[in-house]
Design a protein that fits this description.
- Keywords: Molybdenum, Oxidoreductase.
- This is Xanthine dehydrogenase YagR molybdenum-binding subunit.
- GO terms for molecular function: iron ion binding; xanthine dehydrogenase activity.
- The chain contains 17 helices and 32 strands.
- By secondary structure, it is of the alpha+beta class.
- The chain has three domains: 196 residues, 2-Layer Sandwich (Aldehyde Oxidoreductase, domain 4), CATH 3.30.365; 228 residues, Aldehyde Oxidoreductase, domain 4; 139 residues, Aldehyde oxidase/xanthine dehydrogenase, molybdopterin binding domain (Aldehyde Oxidoreductase, domain 4).
- Strands 3-5-1-15-12-13-14 form a seven-stranded mixed β-sheet, sandwiched between helices.
- Helix 9 packs parallel to helix 17.
- The protein binds dioxothiomolybdenum(VI) ion (MOS).
- Dioxothiomolybdenum(VI) ion binds next to loops.
Length: 717
């Protein structure tokens, strides 16, 4: 609305200088000479920073390796001449305008000594792989006798599925505006982890996190990419050296060069089933590419861990180490591409067994978590299948290749969707109640366009029994309570559980303030509830006093509490996941091979839905991203030098409005009995299953099985 939302690159402190980055053009080696004379003398140039004049810095603490580490990689930034990946920043120019900075950056000439680099999965495999370590756990699972069971199963199916690298393309490219004042750093940063960024930047500069102030009031999408990368460090160094505020806004190309994406995977799925289609062996193994400076071997085995009952299981992630920019988290890391392999293979097995693919999956519904052995907190998978199938018209599906409308072959396909429930430690919320009957609720959480602030305004209004317009939800600032990552589809549960605790604290404090002159006198926190902008006895609602009255009688203008969410223990006793079933109609042009998807229907069981409008929108966004992965998205790399060749939105294809069909989203809205508020995450499940459902629909249309994403027309001709 009227440009009133200020994004990170829209803050304009006085005397600000603009930064531009120079990226290495080799995959591995070192800079032997850097000619900065022309750049230094170019109009408007304030500073040219290279490894030769940059101050000494510590590396960024790598995301997920320590409590508040938030770095996408842990490589030194302008600390030496070494080049570790094509695109690595080798210089920064600061100038009076962005155009002057970019022009001067273009004048810098680098000379390199080039080392041999490993730039492809094949070369990485040839050099030897290692077992991935994901979040401290070896990415290897073996239950029962998966090899014997596969060998002796009545029916066996085995195939290899491949998915390419993907790059992040949030609508808002990464950007930071920052300045130093009295030795403290103030950053307006487009991030999804304000506390992680503050702590990590502090550790790079040898500062306490209380000296780094990060705000992130509006973010144009994150999807896992909006953490700490080199550009924030470069900007902070430049601002300190120049003694001026700095804005560094990465170009779209700059995002491709210095912000990691999703890793390429090569997945083998082997399924052994008995005569009735019950799984005896489920094997999901394969190799992913990864840089040596990163913490995430793309965990494609996650879907297989909890989807199906099976007598035996073998899961394994091998890592091929490449000389490349660190790969990273991207919406549903693991499941987004892992579900392509697993759910394609289930479709292929169903075909061989002559069983309807939905029926095959329902026959393999587990009673408890197949890997952990824990009971499910809530699992409405069969509801998802039945509901979506009926709405979609699954009964109209024909045998492969039979339905043709003019030039178009028409097919229907489906796949299971799923994503785990998580709640990370650190959730906290502050509530300030004022005597005018309003409340300010503060959490160091993030709004990236998904509806966080709306939903938590709603949650707080509900809990406090105040109208929504009496609530101000403050977020996106590391000075606020809580360490809340907008990631892993866990922000809502984390914030919600903290608001619940903070509300309880508030009630206790209010009862104290109310004292003996109140109708509430003598009641404990367990005996009252919030209602009509105040507290009332649960047993006798006549015993009521408004917040405003309690505060004014006590002579207080305001009352503040902070509630710390309990340590997340629910996941130790329960297997907790959101589930879904996604159905796709695919039309494949018999002449050109072009694929169109005119309609998608998904039924999802994500626990209680706090806001149907924002939740549906989250699911649609995820599904559209899945459609991109299915049909278009692919980071293309020149194997000779490890350079991303399609670093722009004109050559890296994403769905645009004309590619996006009718998407119907249905929610079970059945509260999870174990999660705070009954809600599970919804941010990531939407992307899962989609590419398999598209591949399965394309198979049904054409009789051709594509096991390599994206499903481009050349693979269908
Ligand atoms: Mo996400 S990949 O947890 O932002």
């Amino acid at each position: 609305m009227r440009g009133a939302a200020t994004f990170a690159a829209e803050f304009a402190p006085e005397n600000m200088a603009y930064a531009a980055v120079v990226f290495a053009t080799i995959a591995r080696g070192r800079v032997t000479a850097l000619d900065i004379a022309a750049a230094t003398g170019a109009p408007g140039v304030v500073l040219v920073l290279t490894h030769e004049n940059a101050p000494r810095l510590k590396p960024m603490p790598l995301f997920m390796t320590a409590g508040k580490a938030g770095g996408g990689d842990d490589l030194p930034i302008l600390q030496d001449a070494e080049v570790h990946y094509n695109g690595q920043p080798i210089a920064l120019v600061l100038a009076e305008t962005l155009e002057q900075a970019e022009h001067a950056a273009s004048l810098i000439e680098a000379t390199y000594e080039i080392d041999e680099a490993v730039t492809t999965l094949e070369a990485g495999k040839a050099r030897g792989t290692r077992t991935g370590i994901a979040f401290g756990q070896p990415a290897h699972v073996e239950i029962g006798k998966p090899e014997d069971e596969l060998a002796t199963a009545a029916h066996r199916f085995e195939a290899t599925y491949t998915t390419p690298r993907h790059n992040h393309n949030a609508i808002e490219p990464h950007a930071v505006t920052l300045y130093w004042q009295d030795g403290e750093l103030y950053m307006h940063d487009a991030v999804q982890a304000v506390n992680h960024v503050a702590w990590s930047v502090g550790s790079v500069f040898g500062l306490g996190e209380d000296k780094v102030h990060v705000t992130s009031p509006y973010v144009g999408g994150g999807f896992g990419s909006k953490v700490l990368w080199s550009h924030q460090i470069l900007a902070a160094v430049a601002a300190r050296e120049a003694g001026r505020p700095v804005r560094l806004s990465l170009s779209r190309e700059g995002v491709y060069r210095t912000v990691g994406g999703r890793a390429q995977t090569e997945q083998r799925v082997a399924l052994g089933a008995d005569a009735q289609g019950r799984l005896q062996a489920l094997q999901h193994t394969g190799t992913v590419i990864m840089s040596a400076h990163n913490a995430l071997p793309e965990p494609f085995i996650l879907s297989a861990q909890s989807s199906y009952a099976t007598k035996s299981m073998l899961l394994d992630i091998q890592v091929a180490t490449l000389d490349m920019l660190a790969n990273t988290f991207m919406r549903a890391p693991g499941e987004a591409v892992g579900s392509f392999g697993l759910e394609s293979a289930m479709d292929e097995l169903a075909e061989r067994l002559g069983i309807d693919p939905i029926e095959l999956r329902i026959r393999n519904e587990p009673e408890k978590d197949p890997m952990k052995g824990l009971p499910f907190s809530s699992r409405q998978v069969v509801w998802c299948w039945r509901t979506a199938a009926e709405r979609f018209g699954w009964d109209k599906r024909q045998a492969p290749g039979l339905r043709r409308e003019g030039e178009w072959l028409v097919g229907l396909g489906c796949a299971m969707a799923g994503y785990p429930y998580q709640r990370m430690p650190g959730g906290a919320a502050g509530i300030t109640l004022t005597a005018d009957g309003r409340a300010q609720v503060s959490v160091a959480a993030h709004e990236m366009g998904m509806g966080t602030s709306t939903v938590h305004t709603q949650v707080a209004a509900d809990r406090l029994a105040l109208p929504m317009d009496a609530i101000e939800f403050r977020y996106g600032d590391n000075a606020l309570p809580g360490v809340v990552l907008a990631g892993g589809s866990q922000q809502t549960a984390s914030v919600g559980s903290a608001i619940i605790v903070a509300t309880r604290e508030l009630v206790k404090e209010l009862l104290q303030l109310a004292g003996n002159a109140s109708p509430l006198a003598g009641l404990s926190a367990d005996e009252v509830g919030t209602t009509h902008g105040g507290l009332a006895s649960l047993a006798d609602p006549q015993r009521y006093e408004s917040y405003a009255s309690i505060l004014s009688r006590a002579g207080r203008f305001e009352l503040s509490v902070v509630g710390q969410a309990p340590m997340p223990g629910e996941g130790m006793h329960w297997s907790m996941h959101s589930h879904g079933a996604i159905f796709v109609e695919a039309r494949v042009n018999a002449v050109t091979g072009e694929v169109r998807v005119p309609r998608l229907t998904g039924a999802y069981d994500c626990g209680r839905i706090l806001n149907p409008k924002t939740a549906t929108s989250q699911l649609r966004g995820g599904i559209i991203m899945g459609l991109g992965a299915a049909l278009m998205e692919e980071t293309q790399v020149d194997p000779r030098n490890g350079r991303i060749m399609n670093a722009s939105l004109s050559e890296y294809h994403l769905p645009v409005h004309l590619d996006v069909p009718d998407i119907e989203v249905i929610f079970s809205d059945i509260p999870d009995p174990v999660s705070p508020m009954g809600a599970r995450g919804i941010g990531e499940i939407g992307i899962t299953g989609v590419s398999a459902a598209v591949a399965n629909a394309v198979y049904n249309a054409t009789g051709k099985r594509v096991r390599d994403l994206p499903i481009t027309l050349d693979k269908l001709l």
